[in-house]
Specification:
By secondary structure, the chain is mainly α. It has one domain. Helix content is 75%, strand content 0%. It is built from twelve helices and no strands. The longest helix is centred in the C-terminal third of the chain and has 28 residues.
Length: 276
């Protein structure tokens, strides 16, 4: 991997991780168009540690409060407030993607990165996001979060294992379908992603240095720089998105997903880029 690849892909990861447009899909597309090869699923997973670090910093007060409340609630029933429940929701909702991610790790690193599949998911899942915006009641704030919401959004998060779907798009859409307000669905989707992404990044760290056919090899310094770039850009993206969804719908991202998917399909059909 060159330094240009590392920096550009780190910036792409930071910019797209929290928007409902699929960071893994964008990394796959950008690396193929600009560099003619796949950066690899392991590189993607490791640089996601940078964006999740941005979440940890941005929501530090919330996370510390939730963890403290969760531990207090374990030993004191009277202390089981909203933060205690959110702690359990995150834990329970992380189990499905943990199990499926482990069982299908080989497919995720190989066949699932086919650009025909990525482009198709960009287009098809845009319809899901649009439907969530149209039919979701968007009535309940995060204070009204329930176990059903946590489980539903956790199951939806599993779809993010397919590049082109989008973790935030899947979980936020599920939240809207369940009746959460847009900002509440997006905020919980950020918290929900932390355990899964951190575990995936740490698990993939050794493979990122020796990709064994699923991506180009990067040095430790390149991975570090790409992760730092992802952190800085990702932090800015979080702040922007939370303000944006307070007053705007997710429809804005639907059109972009469709146009990008059609562009990639056109490049594939014309033989400009390779699907694998």
């Amino acid at each position: 991997m060159t330094w240009a690849q590392a920096i550009v892909l780190g910036a792409v990861q930071g910019l797209t991780e929290f928007l409902p447009i699929s960071s893994s899909g964008h990394l796959r597309i950008v690396s193929e168009i600009w560099f003619g090869e796949d950066a690899g699923a392991s590189f993607t997973a490791v640089t996601q540690l940078g964006t999740e670090a941005a979440v940890l910093v941005f929501f530090a007060k919330d996370i510390i409060r939730i963890i403290a409340s969760w531990f207090r609630g374990l030993f004191n029933k009277d202390a089981r407030d909203l933060d205690y429940r959110i702690g359990w929701y995150v834990i329970i909702a992380t189990i499905p993607i943990g199990v499926l991610g482990f069982l299908f790790k080989d497919e995720i690193r190989t066949g699932a990165r086919n650009l025909w599949l990525v482009a198709s998911m960009l287009i098809l899942f845009s319809a899901v996001i649009a439907a969530a915006e149209k039919f979701g009641r968007k009535e309940r704030p995060i204070e009204k979060l329930t176990t059903r919401d946590g489980i539903g959004m956790g199951l939806a998060q599993c779809l993010a294992l397919i590049p082109g779907v989008s973790r935030s798009g899947a979980t936020a859409s599920a939240g809207l379908f369940l009746g959460l307000k847009r900002e509440a669905a997006v905020r919980f989707s950020f918290l929900l992603a932390i355990p899964a992404v951190v575990a995936s990044g740490l698990f993939s760290l050794p493979d990122a240095f020796e990709p064994s056919g699923d991506g180009v090899e990067s040095s430790g310094m390149q991975l570090l720089v790409a992760t730092i770039v992802a952190f800085v850009v990702g932090y800015a993206a979080i702040a922007w998105l939370l303000k944006f969804v307070a007053d705007h719908s997710l429809y804005w991202f639907v059109g972009y997903r469709v146009l990008l998917g059609l562009l990639v399909m056109g490049l594939l059909a014309g033989g400009v880029i390779s699907a694998t």
